[in-house]
Amino acid sequence: MPGRDYAVDLRQGDMYLGAGFLLTRCYVLTADHCLRRLTDHDDRVSVCFESGATLEGCVRRRVADADLAIVEILHPQDVPFTLPNADHARRGDRWRGLHRPLLSDPDLGGLVDAYAVKYHCEGGDFIEAIQLAVEQTLGDYSGYSGGPVEKATPGSDGAVIGILIEQYPDRQDARRSANVLFAATIHEALSRFEYFSTGHLHRVLKDPSTAPPGTSAQGVDSDPDAVMDRTETVLVRLKEWSDRGLLDPAQVVSLAMQAGRAMIDGTLGGEDTGERRNAR
Amino acid sequence: MNGETLGDLVRRVEHALTDGDDGGTLGPLPEPAHRLIAADVVRHPASARSVCYLAALLNTLHRRDDALRVLRGAATALFAADSTDPAERGAALNQLAVMTGSLGDLRSAYDLLLRLADDLPRSASSLQARVHANTAAAQAQLGLSEQAEASARRARRHLDAAGASADGEDLDVQNVLAAVDLAVTTPDTDPATRVAAAARFRTANLAALEERAPGTGSESAEISLLLGRAVVELEQARERQHTGDLNRLTLALEAITVRAAAALGSEHPQTVMAVVSLACAEFDSARAAPEPRRGRLDRAVTALQSATELAVRCLGPDHHLAVAASTAHGRALREVARTTRRQQPTRGEEAVDKTRAPQVAAKSHRSVRVPQLVRRVLVVALVGAFTFLIVNLASADQSESWQLSVSIALGGVALLVQYLVDFEQRMETMDTALDVRGREMAQLVGESFAKINAATELFSEVDRSELRSDGVVELARSVARVSGDSPDIVRDFATEEINRVTRLIDNMASKVADCEGQNLDWLQSLTQCARRSIDAVSTGATRDLWFSHDAARYLEAEAEAVRHRGVRIRRLFVTQRPEDVDDALRQLCEDQRELGIDARVLVPSQLPLYVRRGVIPDFVLFDRTLSYEVEQDLAGLGGRTTLNVRTGHITTRVSRFDLLWEAAESSTGDHAQDSNRY
After folding, report:
1. Span B71-80, mean pLDDT?
2. Fewer CB atoms inside 10 A, N or C side of chain A?
3. A7 vs A5: CA distance, rounded Å
């Protein structure tokens, strides 16, 4: 999603898997069925940018029911930064696809027929989808799945509104597709992956151990004695602040409990604190 | 319009939005629509939610003025509605105030909250806590740190009085208060205090997040919490210059921003706030990298430019977030340019470098000060985000569409950076001068700094005084515009007027001010400033006023106060003899009644002795806190006008007025039964 160079091809070795696009510098969104040729027991993929750059990625989660999957980029610091640009759409907005299976294939585009409609997708689940009328009557839109759907606004850069996942069959001739396509909304896609959930993001914000890839926290000491010394220092400091009236007794107790819990996790290797269980 | 309800009106605006006409065919809301809204909210204070929703929709259609007018009208009607349950009315006004602030009119929201705080029943502790917490948030955003701290203390007292049960409402209030505590800290604050404030914020933030059961909370509320937390952690990481944490948090903020855009839309104020914060965070991360790469810095600057453009497009060029983003962008541009210069020193610059000792100190000072401006952006995101929660809280039982739409309110971000920006620009100018001219400019810069410091100190004092600082700044600018080329008479007149105003304000500081003769300008201004009530006793000293040309202007101001601000006006005409109650006086009362002024006539000689004992002065009580009084001279003319705000004096005047008012029978029309009744 960031920048113009956010639509990518996913490959495994020399094998083309399908299209996808960057949601952030860390994560690539794709349609699950694009990964059907993925080799068993090997989640590593190459993320290929239009600029020619290729980065290493790893398939983190597949949601077959909703036909969505997410690939994590292992070195996100190598992805150029630009601002995210997702958006909503309204009926009648123009849309365009950014991905072509081959350079000899046409670009797709047309009008948004309905936004955020409940759609029973082939994966079996109900999803929040966008119904798109496509102007290029090809009869078969295979190969376009996984690509980003952009809202085309005159005079400004496009904004991503969804991921193309399905074509609708012609009811009179099932061998052909009608000029109706379905895309999952970005909101739907994000809701399917815990990386964007409130609980996960909150843990990332407060806990370096859940940091995104390539951003290992500095200064984290795993030596049990060091952890206990650090905790002792924290407790002494808390008492000082309490004596100075900066914290009330309830806050001191709460913070001391957290420090103690963190110390136990640090020395015994516990991971799932009560706090984490509660945070979604 | 005929027969249209508030719900119909909301649906009509919704259709305008969903059909993509962007408000072009909707047209301005007609006067009947505003009356309809005011009447509806008086009948059902709970419909303030729908009014807020309507305002949010109008704002999305780029009709901010209409949106603010809707909110103002509803608030005025509610204040004027005595029959409404005070607690219900207070809750509704709190929502209207927060929405007003969210649409960028923070000063009006602040005024509304202050008035509301005076108006609330003491027993409504929980509501009092919310109102004071919101007031603190508004003050923090306005840079009124001391007042914010005082309001936060009041809010906490009310929370305690309410018996702080750890329900969602209290948690959200505590979250706002924790954000305010953190927002009012400065780099000069004791580090332990800052760390403790951050710890309190984290605790409150976590509690608020945990309190929201999965799937039941509003997504925008969760995004607010996450955004606030990210901003705090980024600030801490920046202070520690911890590169790993800065990168980690920037990536997390990126995910939050994507989620905000996907859930709320790219132009939602909350998304805009996230985008601006993200651009600032990326710039800081790029700058803090051990070996900053020029390409990354350039991209961060481009992102800041895009974020600024987005803020200007969505919130308007004068919105404080847009101004702050623009300033941060300017700073980033300068920093990148300076980095380039450092990497490619010219021969001239090398020569200047040898004479730069004084500048090093100046730059060192700036390196501490400048990030403060970016920090302001982050503080705004922090407090703005949490202020929103209090509105959202009340909507938990509403439909998702309501929750999504009301959250359009966020982004209220009003930050008084105007003179900070000026300060920044002046600093920039001086910095350039230093680069070009070298040491000989150092003395000049030192003097200029002293002037700026004096100006900053002055403005700080203005801020602390709770006077509207923009008026004072405008006065200072106007004085500067009266140039030396102006005629003598213009300069002398301007000087005399400034002296007069200075004397008045000086005297008001000692709670009494006076002047020769009857000062109708004061009367007019006070009428325009009154918020709640005007109680007047009109004796022979001012009787002639009502039959002069000045009366029309004064009555127009009173009628405006009644109609638009819900001010209650009571006027008691005092005559010495029953035969003085003539047709002219009856007509005068009738005319005033038609303007919404409650007028009565009093003939002291017909009253019991205990009432008529003592003098009956000619005075006007404004909001029952300031008395405007006219004393007659020996010739029976207006000899001296006095303004008095001394508590003892006001108490006496209030008691006297109440006694006289009760004594005078209210008029019921033209059917005079006796000399008092007409």
Report:
1. 91
2. C
3. 6
